Amino acid sequence: MAQINPSILSADFARLAEEAKAVQGADWLHVDVMDNHFVPNLTLGVPVVESLARATDTPLDCHLMIEDPDRWAPRYVEAGASSVTFHVEAAAAPVRLAREIRAKGARASMALKPATPIEPFEDLLPELDMLLIMTVEPGFGGQAFLDIMLPKIRRTRELIAKHGLQMWLQVDGGVSASTIEQCAEAGADVFVAGSAVYGAADPAEAVRALRAQAEAVTAQSSWACDH
């Protein structure tokens, strides 16, 4: 089943509780944490995640675009995140970190920037609950989807199938009504959508429409039939 994770990076930060309620029916809320070091942008941190976790019943999917995730990622689980994604480019000990996130009770996820290949990390896949393929350069919302990432999504799905894993494959960046079907056909099943949801007149309806698009394609895709 396709999952839609609205990104609050595109929401009104002054009204986060209301913006969380505006996407009723979303599978997760995607929370972009940026430190102005790993990426050239600064967003929010642990205190805001703690407040948001109290304000919504929708589980939080925290994407850490930060340096030293080995130190900070466990704090986001303690703050209320149900899934924590660290960037492999920033992690010193990704296996140990994934195990610590899981041990604290959250889903462990690893993200790859566009230029980072998946193949060197094949042996890490069993340690993860989700893998995130960035379909834009991380740091800013509203960027155009990089269709050259589609082969990488396909290769990642093939590796997941090769190892018989039940992990999710997430895409983040430029996901919209015009790109989500390509991502689903390539093998993604979790979709982060920012402006495509929060820029819509009815964000909750946008979530439903995107999910329906993705599921229609997934039902006919070879990777899902083999899954």
TrEMBL record:
GO cellular component: cytoplasm
Pathway terms, separated by semicolons: Carbohydrate degradation
Catalytic reaction(s) noted: D-ribulose 5-phosphate = D-xylulose 5-phosphate
Family matches, as SUPFAM superfamilies: Ribulose-phoshate binding barrel
Top-level EC class: isomerase
UniProt xrefs under InterPro entries: Aldolase_TIM, Ribul_P_3_epim, Ribul_P_3_epim-like, RibuloseP-bd_barrel
GO BP, one annotated term: pentose-phosphate shunt
Note on cofactor: Binds 1 divalent metal cation per subunit.
PANTHER family linked to this entry: RIBULOSE-5-PHOSPHATE-3-EPIMERASE (PTHR11749)
NCBIfam families cross-referenced by the UniProt entry: PRK05581.1-4 (NF004076), rpe (TIGR01163)
Identification of the protein by name: Ribulose-phosphate 3-epimerase
Species, as recorded: Streptomyces monashensis
Chain's gene name: rpe
